[in-house]
Amino acid sequence: MNSNSKEKISEAGPAKINLLGYDLAHMKAFFTEIGEKPFRAVQVLKWIHQFGVDDFSQMSNVSQALRARLADIAEIKAPEIIMEQKASDGTIKWLMRLDGGNSIETVFIPEDNRGTLCVSSQVGCALDCGFCSTARQGFNRNLSSAEIIAQLWIANRTLNQLEVHNEAVSSEQAVPKKAQDSKRRVITNVVLMGMGEPLLNFDNVVEAIHLMLEDHAYGLSKRRVTISTAGVVPALKRLREECDVSLAISLHAPNDKIRDRIVPLNKKYPIKELLEACRYYFSGDTKKKQFTIEYVMLAGINDSENNARELAALLKNLPCKINLIPFNPFPNSEFDCSKIQMINRFKDILYKAGYVAVVRKTRGEDIDAACGQLAGKVKDKSRRVNVKAQH
Ligand code: SAH
After folding, report:
1. DSSP string, 342-359
2. What is the C-alpha to C-alpha distance for residues 348 and 370, in angstroms, rounded to an integer?
3. Which listed residue, 15, 172, 186, 193, has the most CB atoms within 10 A of its CB?
4. What is the predicted pLDDT for the residue at 170?
5. Which member of 36, 105, 147, 207 is catalytic?
6. Does domain 17-75 match CATH 1.20.120.1730?
7. What is the DSSP string of 290-342?
8. Is 266 strand, coil or helix?
9. 80-390, what's its fold?
10. Of the ranges 191-200, 281-290, 366-375, which one carries the lowest mean pLDDT score?
């Protein structure tokens, strides 16, 4: 819980409290605060997240008097979808409107045996990695927990409707079933790999993750929710204590010299400290298997055979697998993607050194939905956060 509901109620005046981003603890505190029993929290969470309801009047197991009261003081409010694009490979990208001319992007990637939602955590990003187009947008602000979970809420509602529609069409049913009757889970995995650095928006990201894991909300397993980070070391340590989901580390370089250049955060938290934090993250828990090392393949920068050997030595004895990501170009980027032969040679060297290394398939390319292509719209790009001030 990252804010006090009492404060919000008394200060808010006519503005309503948005319950969309409240996790179970926060929701219980809210109901206690307004003099109701905490079990109401479970009922309302289920309506919002399992049934996709945003109207209190539909919450049929809540008394009419309470429904009316809730409608008076609270709301369930998600950003508005301003664009939905579908790629030829089935990837879907949504552009969602926030306040003040900002917008964010969310991507759904369907695969044979799973559906992954790529979620944004900030409007823009402050880290300035040279190969990432989100960085070009600068940074505006953190997303609230409501704006983070809203991406899953919206995608779930939209995809369930699609699914129900398809089922209805294929069985020629006259009346489609309700979205919540659809048994098959469409979104099985969530990755925080959209716009922003999730660990620089710690509290809101953690509250949204609580909802992803919560049985009364989305009930995803910890292993199916992944935080991708450029390596905010102190926040990684905190994350282990508070919600130890799966981890992907945007390493991208086998040494500090190269990493300083392409991931400026490295100057503050160099590779050695970052990998120590990863080791700590996994210490003492045998159930956690591995984390993912992300490595974007940039021609002539980090893709030589020597770089591969150096990377293999660097990661020795760490429980990780390696994702090689072909660089996705964007207008005026200073980098080129490595040739496919270089990527394969790099992979073979890692493989021979005993690592599981895979080349990540690029998805949604024709709608600019691939890694590092999410741009959204950031108003007032001059606002850069001082990383030091936060941690
Ligand atoms: N800030 C977080 C999450 C966002 S980026 C992080 O750094 O991990 C998600 C992943 O896409 C990261 O591994 C990032 O390095 C990678 N990426 C960014 N731009 C890319 C590009 N143009 N091509 C390929 N991968 C890119």
Report:
1. HHHHHHHHHHHTT--EEE
2. 24
3. 193
4. 54
5. 105
6. no
7. -EEEEEEEBTTTT-SHHHHHHHHHHTTT--EEEEEEE----TT-S--BPPHHH
8. helix
9. TIM Barrel (3.20.20)
10. 366-375
